[in-house]
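cron nightly-structures :: item 1 of 1
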Amino acid sequence: MNIDKAEFLSWMDRIMTRFDILSEKVKESQNALRSIDGEQLLDNQDVLQLLKISPRTLQRYRSEERLSYYTISGKLYYKLSDVHQLIRDSFKSSHKK
């Protein structure tokens, strides 16, 4: 079975379009799974990158109850609003000194 180049490219274009659609649907479902009460949840890696801190510092924030966290299926998550509050509190404490 021989396929000419134009037909092959047409099929490949359709396949790639379907992959793009599937990719968007997967992203949408992941975002839906990573939210609670309409608020975005961040995992450890997200918070580490956002705050530019080490894993040990993040652990200290949890231990000192400076940052609330939630355990879902054995994985830690943080509400984006809680992370923003930690940042605001850090600015307040640094200005008091």
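cron nightly-structures :: done
Residues 19 and 67 are 38 Å apart (CA to CA).
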